[in-house]
Design brief:
By secondary structure, the chain is an alpha+beta fold. The protein contains 11 helices and 4 strands. Strands 2-3-1-4 form a 4-stranded antiparallel β-sheet.
Length: 336
């Protein structure tokens, strides 16, 4: 077996370090150039400023119900849960909201995009996707972050998103509740008509002398017994005749009274639901609770110059080392 040439390149740590030491000048020069270039580039990158708003979605219909609830407990939370947070995220990600924000803040012009150029909408959507983000937090709130090129515009865009999202949520609820309100109002009117018919029927029965059937029959039977005991035969006959007159009306009186009582409870429930739906349809109840409005940041969030310089320099160093090792390995392999 032939002995290995000590100068021959080999993939072991000793030979690699020795080889890199021989190339130290090239490595230092390239690393220095990478450091300088990354430093210059970090100053050329346009700065961005991040503004953040935090909102809690409200539980569906809870606020309207609480307004009329007679059993509202102290400290009852009306914050929404996962389902409401997902609904809010869907609204925040909608094209409708995005177009309103872009139009309201003239973002095409602010971002140097000509509205008449080709793919202008695609470009502004791309930048919007880069600078605007939404994410749920572990506390079931939603965080809205805007990282624009100017502090004031970052905060303004974030707050506009909060307002527009609330408006769209209210509008969506109003579209649903308005149809439900029409149906419920019709049902309530039918209930009122049925109640009036029952009351008219009961009034007709009462005009025939049945005012309180159970009380009346109880008193008549007592009076009849007393008349028999006292020997008042004519009085007993008169009372018996009266009992015979109201007896056929008793079942009708009881049935109408029970139906009126049941209908009154039903109408009460319908009336409470109408109050809730009318309030929802009016779009006056907020769909979210704003915990933090966005404020103009006083410090840039991007780029982090030190991170850019360090990462770029280290990346250039290791990439150069990798290329040197691969190039030397290939050169030795071809020579052999």
């Amino acid at each position: 077996m032939m002995e290995q040439n000590p100068k021959e390149f080999s993939l072991n740590s000793t030979h690699i370090l020795s080889y890199l030491w021989e190339k130290r000048r090239l490595i230092i020069v390239v690393t220095t150039i990478a450091f300088v270039v990354s430093m210059v580039a970090s100053f050329l990158i346009q700065e961005r400023f991040k503004a953040t708003a935090v909102v809690f979605p409200a539980r569906a219909n809870q606020q309207s119900k609480d307004v009329f609830s007679t059993t509202l407990q102290k400290g009852l939370t009306v914050f929404g849960e996962d389902e409401e947070a997902e609904q809010l995220l869907q609204v925040l990600s909608s094209e409708t909201l995005r177009d309103i924000v872009i139009r309201k803040h003239r973002l095409m012009e602010n971002w140097g995009i000509n509205p008449n150029e080709r793919f202008a909408r695609t470009k502004v959507y791309g930048i919007y996707g880069d600078v605007v983000s939404f994410r749920p937090t572990q506390y079931q709130s939603v965080k809205i972050e805007v990282e624009d090129f100017f502090p004031q515009s970052s905060a303004a865009i974030a707050n506009t998103i909060v307002v527009v999202a609330d408006s769209l949520m209210r509008e969506a609820k109003a579209q649903i509740t308005s149809k439900a309100l029409e149906a419920l109002e019709l049902q309530y009117q039918v209930g009122l008509d049925e109640m009036k018919s029952l009351e008219d029927s009961l009034t007709a029965v009462m005009k025939k002398g049945v005012v309180n059937f159970e009380g009346q029959t109880d008193r008549y039977h007592k009076a009849y017994a007393e008349a028999l005991v006292s020997g008042n035969r004519s009085g007993a006959e008169a009372i018996a005749k009266r009992i015979a007159e109201i007896a056929p009306l008793g079942s009708r009186y009881i049935r109408l009274s029970e139906e009126i009582e049941h209908m009154a409870l039903h109408l009460t429930d319908l009336r409470e639901n109408l109050k809730v739906l009318r309030l929802e349809a009016s779009k006056t109840i907020p769909s979210q609770f704003v915990i933090d409005w966005a404020t103009a940041p006083d410090k840039k969030s991007y780029p982090k110059k030190s991170i850019v310089i360090v990462v770029s320099t280290i990346s250039a160093f290791f990439f150069l080392v990798f290329l040197l090792i691969v190039a030397e390995f290939i050169r030795k392999s071809l020579r052999r």
